[in-house]
Design a protein that fits this description.
single chain, alpha/beta, 6-stranded mixed β-sheet
């Protein structure tokens, strides 16, 4: 399987490893007895990436230890389609997003108008998607996909989630009091996990560093961090260092502007009680 997000991620790492070793594609091809075009096709994910070819490249590059095993595992995983690639006709944007979530070690999510998808209940997600005009025959499937994606927070080696939520998202009664009470109880429960941090940006703060829009920064083991910006019909990954740095700067400001974890829990509890009383 070639030209998938996982194949492109591996191809990028192989290219970086070759550059770090000080070899050109032509020099690597000559040592391996391959054509330069073959190396190029592997490094751009334009052909299937075979485990034995990756192993041969790593031998020449003298890569050993954890980095070698990690890249070989990536090569083996490419041969096994991921759950979101099996029998589904999902938009490329969504498959790329899921792949980033699966590979990330830490996700920094700044949410303004709604609860982050990785923390949403089924009922909350359903209301969001219905209001967005998703066709009824697609609704339950997309709700289920979002729920399955949340598994990255509870797997054996879970992703760390660092989430900033604007208080306006807590005020908006998506689905009514009963749905909101359930949703915010789930956010509170998630905040008690060691890999999840929830920080609220209170209304009394006024302006803050994220008012220009929601964004997500994904951190990986070796690859450079990327920023994801979501649109109504499409999203964009930003990976240029100078551009990603702008979002890191915003995140640093939010660290000083948001309520701490204890105060954030108090704000969440206040809204839970409010919605419970109204339900």
């Amino acid at each position: 399987m070639s030209d998938t997000p996982r194949a492109r991620a591996l191809a990028k790492e192989l290219r970086a490893a070759r550059n770090a070793a000080g070899l050109t594609a032509r020099e690597l091809a000559r040592v391996l007895g391959w054509s330069e075009a073959k190396v190029s096709r592997i490094e751009t994910a334009r052909r299937g990436i075979l485990v034995q070819n990756v192993e041969a490249m790593l031998d020449v590059l003298e890569m050993k230890g954890e980095d070698r095993e990690r890249l070989l595992k990536m090569a083996r995983d490419i041969r096994e389609p991921a759950w979101w690639e099996l029998g589904r006709d999902l938009p490329q944007q969504l498959t790329a997003l899921i792949d980033a979530e699966q590979r990330a070690t830490r996700i920094n999510h700044v949410a303004l108008n709604m609860i982050p998808g990785l923390l949403q209940t089924r009922a909350y997600t359903r209301q969001i998607m219905e209001s967005g005009g998703l066709p009824p025959d697609e609704l339950e499937d997309h709700v289920s996909i979002r729920q399955v994606r949340q598994g990255i927070l509870t797997k054996r080696d879970p992703v760390a989630l660092n989430s900033f939520i604007d208080e306006t998202a807590l005020l908006r009664p998506v689905g009514g009091p009963r749905v909101m009470a359930e949703q915010l109880r789930q956010v509170v429960a998630a905040s008690e996990e060691s890999n999840v941090t929830i920080r609220v940006l209170p209304l009394e703060l006024g302006a803050h560093a994220a008012l220009s829009g929601t964004f997500v920064i994904y951190e990986f083991i070796k690859s450079r961090p990327v920023t994801y910006l979501e649109g109504r019909s499409s999203g964009a990954f930003i990976d240029a260092s100078e551009d990603v740095d702008l979002f890191w700067d915003a995140l640093k400001h939010l660290e000083t502007q948001a309520s701490d974890s204890v105060a954030s829990r108090e704000i969440l509890d206040k809204y839970v009680k409010r919605y419970e009383s109204e339900a």
